[in-house]
Amino acid sequence: MIPRTEAELFQRARALAGRTLGSIAAEHGSVPPVELVKAKGWAGQLLERALGASAASRAEPDFQHLGVELKSLPVDARGRPRESTFVCTIALSEIGDVEWESSRVWRKLRRVLWLPIEADRRLLPAERRVGEPLLWSPSAEEESALRFDWEELSGLMGRGAVEAITGHLGKWLQVRPKAANGQARRRALDADGVGFATLPRGFYLRAAFTARLLASHYAIGRP
C-alpha cells in the first residue's frame, strides 16, 4: 500500500530500523541472495516494496505523490558509507537542453528518505540490519554545491564532450558509466551535434558527500 503522507512513510521506515533484510524479505515473498555482487539492487528493491514505493524505474522520485526519493545507503561498522550513491541515469542526447530546476538529479535529490544498511562483507545479505531513517532536503549551501557540479558536468556533455568526462570531475556529483554489461549503448551527441553510440552514464553522489550528511545528522564519531 502506498503511504499517503510523509509522516506515514517515515513511520514505516522507522518500523524497519533494527530489522534484518532477511526478516523483511520473508514478509514480502523475496528470497535473499547469498551475495550481492550479482544482485546489487536487491536490498533497495526490497525496501521499496516494504515501504510502498510507486515510481519503479521511472525518472521520478520513488514516492511520486510525496516527491520523496528512497536511497538505501550501505555503511560500515562505524557508520561510514561504503560506496558512492547512484542518483539517476542521464539522457545523453537531451542533457544540454535541461535546466537544473527540471533536471532528473534535482527531482531525485530535492527530498530523500535515507535508509542506512549494514554492509559488513562477513554478513550474509539476509543478516544485515536496516538503520534509523533520515528524511532530508539539501540546505541552500548543499544545493548550490550540487548545482555547480551538475551544471559543469551537464555543460560538458551538452557540448559533446561526454567521452572526456571521468569520475574525477565534480566535487560531490560525478558521472560514471551505468550499464549492466559492456555491450549496452545510448545515443549521445558530439561537438558537431552528430549522434553516436556510447556507454550509458549515470550521476552518482560521492561517498564523501553522504559521509558528511550522515555525520551531521547521526551520532557518528561523537562521544
Furnish the topology, listing elements before pairings:
Elements: H1 6-16, H2 21-27, H3 42-51, E1 69-75, E2 85-89, H4 104-109, E3 112-118, E4 134-136, H5 140-158, E5 173-177, E6 186-189, E7 195-198, E8 201-205, H6 207-217
Please describe what this structure looks like.
The structure is a single chain. With 223 residues, the protein is of the alpha+beta class. The chain has a single domain (6-217), classed as DNA mismatch repair MutH/Restriction endonuclease, type II (ECO RV Endonuclease, Chain A). Helix content is 29%, strand content 18%. The chain is built from 6 helices and 8 strands. The chain has helices at residues 6-16, 21-27, 42-51, 104-109, 140-158, 207-217; strands at 69-75, 85-89, 112-118, 134-136, 173-177, 186-189, 195-198, 201-205. The strands form 3 sheets. A 3-stranded mixed beta sheet has the order 1-3-4. Strands 2-8-5 form a 3-stranded antiparallel beta sheet. It is globular. The mean pLDDT is 90.
Q: How does the major sheet shape up?
A: 3 strands, mixed
CATH C-level class? Alpha Beta
Q: Do you know the CATH architecture? A: 3-Layer(aba) Sandwich
Number of strands: 8
Q: Provide a count of the helices.
A: 6
The radius of gyration over CA amounts to: 18 Å
* Order of SSEs: HHHEEHEEHEEEEH
Average of the residue pLDDT scores: 90
> What distance separates the N and C termini?
40 Å
